[in-house]
Design a protein that fits this description.
Strand content: 5-15%
Strand order of the largest sheet: 2-1-3-4-5
Structural class: alpha/beta
Distance between the termini: 86 Å
Radius of gyration: 29 Å
Length: 447
């Protein structure tokens, strides 16, 4: 018996043929699933995710063409080999035109079938590896949209590259729009699980009952409407990575179940009699202050410590001033087909870098998309920017001084400008200024 070479699904309504093929392929090192009908083939396809399909062309009911079509709906790149009688060569050629990988004519030599299957599986594996390598290269060059040369990004690159090699739970923290999911995907694709699934779920998007079923799955009849069983995202991510976005919004009752998975490596579907083992790396992200949530009792302390084994902080855009030119150039390139927009004038760039960017990189990208559509010139001027980007104004007065003034006056003008940028929100303004909010109230009282 050779090492496992891949998984093959054999579809044929002749039991003797399927048994013969299964035995020969198993001897060659393949894991083999068999089906004697179209319905069984579809069930096996969904349950086991083969690397290639070998199907007879002529079967009772739905035939090999139906299998071929259905397989390519599920996975357009999954190779399908057609078995056909010697007198049906024209039909086999038609199958090739419809997307079959190859065909073999009956009676055939088993070694011939093995050669074609081995080649098909190898080519599929090579395509997947090439996609992974391209993805890794893209991510390594600049973490996708989170490109930049600032010191904070350099530190993030270094940390992500080291953390990716581990298998520990990781908590990614940062403001909304800063790129937390991008960091999670990079950790997966730079790590040892890169060839397995990356599954993401937003803990805010679903109510508690649906989120439990989504994560852990359910058996048929577990609750009203559960007419078919569901594997759940933990099982889908088995061998790979599960990304729990906005973990701070996970209901308290589900936090206990998640903790048990982290401790025991087992999940129990809703309504199931027993647990199922899974091998999943957990990545979680939040924009909330989980330390405060732990103190208030809204988030379990034991789960927090389990998730926070390797913390990563994603810097907000306002702390990455050196990255604006590269980010803007990237976003202009992405929308090149939407208009003639190519660059920002110096005054427009100055205004952009002076804005506090509460929506971070996502907000900047959306702004560039908007400008590409509504602006016709090659260069965006400050007037265009202010018109189409509410909240962005000309650079603050202290940066445009033409004479020397007392420091207190510069501070007052700048604080007033930041407050205006933050729509009068003193808490947000204090965060931008890097001071305690009480300082702003004291300055108001002293005037």
């Amino acid at each position: 018996m050779q090492d496992n070479q891949g998984r093959i699904l054999v579809v044929d309504d002749h039991v003797e043929m399927t048994r013969l093929l299964a035995d020969r392929l198993a001897d060659a090192g393949y894991t083999v699933d068999v089906a004697s009908s179209y319905g069984e083939a579809m069930a096996q396809l969904k349950a086991n995710k083969p690397d290639a399909v070998l199907t007879d062309l002529r079967m009772e009911g739905q035939d090999g063409f139906d299998v071929l079509e259905a397989v390519h709906v599920v996975d357009p790149e999954l190779p399908v080999l057609i078995m056909t009688a010697f007198g049906a060569i024209e039909t086999a050629i038609a199958a090739i035109k419809r997307g079959a990988y190859h065909y073999v004519t009956k009676p055939f030599q088993l070694d011939e079938v093995l050669v074609y299957l081995t080649r098909a599986v190898a080519e599929r594996s090579l395509r997947a590896e090439n996609r992974t390598l391209r993805r890794i290269a893209d991510l390594r060059v600049g973490l996708g949209a989170m490109i930049g040369r600032s010191s904070s990004m350099a530190a993030l690159y270094d940390l992500v590259e080291r953390v990716a090699k581990s298998d520990f739970p990781t908590l990614i923290r940062g403001e909304s729009g800063a790129g937390k999911e991008l960091v999670a995907r990079t950790l997966h694709y730079l790590g040892p699980r890169r060839d397995r699934a990356f599954v993401a779920v937003n803990c805010t998007a679903l109510p508690a009952a649906l989120l439990e079923s989504e994560l852990f799955g359910h058996v048929r009849g577990a609750f009203t409407g559960a007419s078919v069983p569901r594997r759940g995202l933990f099982v889908e991510a088995d061998g790979g990575t599960l990304f729990l976005d906005e973990i701070g919004d996970m209901p308290k009752e589900l936090q206990a179940k998640l903790l048990r998975v982290l401790e025991d490596g087992e999940v129990r579907a809703v309504g199931a009699d027993g647990p199922r083992r899974v091998d999943v790396r957990i990545l979680a992200a939040t924009h909330q202050d989980l330390d405060a949530h732990v103190q208030s009792g809204a988030f379990r302390a034991d789960l927090f410590y389990r998730l926070n084994v390797v913390p990563i902080q994603v810097p907000p855009l306002r702390e990455r001033l050196d990255d604006f030119p590269d980010l803007i150039a990237l976003f202009f390139k992405r929308v090149a087909g939407e208009g003639r927009v190519r660059s920002l004038s110096p005054r427009a760039m100055e205004a952009i870098t002076s804005y506090h960017w509460p929506g971070n990189v996502r907000e900047l990208e959306n702004l560039i998309k908007r400008l590409a559509v509504v602006t016709s010139s090659d260069v965006i001027e400050l007037e265009d920017l202010v018109k189409h980007a509410p909240g962005i104004t000309e650079a603050p007065p202290p940066l445009r001084r033409t004479k020397l003034v007392p420091l207190r006056q510069v501070e007052d003008e700048y604080i007033a400008w930041v407050l205006d940028q933050c729509a009068g929100n003193k808490t947000k303004a204090a965060e931008v200024l890097g001071i305690d909010v009480s300082t702003l109230y004291r300055r108001d009282r002293s005037k």
